[in-house]
Amino acid sequence: MEDDIILKISYRIKEIRKEKNITIQELANRAGVSKGLISQIENNRTIPSLPVLMNIVHSLNLDLTGFFKDISPANHQEKVFVIRASEYKPLKKKQPKDLITSAYLPATSMEVL
Fold this sequence. Notes:
By secondary structure, this protein is mainly alpha-helical. The chain contains 5 helices and no strands.
């Protein structure tokens, strides 16, 4: 879960920086960090400390609420299930002869199929 949020933070920094036409060097100067650190953060090679993250966010002229508004843990999103072909087992369909209709059962022993 944490990895997903960290990826989203890194992506969001890069996305906003590019939308505002700010170079990596400009953002680094504004945030008081090195150009290399901004690059590493944007490319998910390092995790910024909280003070550095706050400086970067404020250097992009955003407040923390605005920055994090679209970032949420993966468990709050739709889930996708992947079934590998080697693990796939089709459901066995009941044949008509396996089905018993209510006409042949007493009302007290009827099953819901």
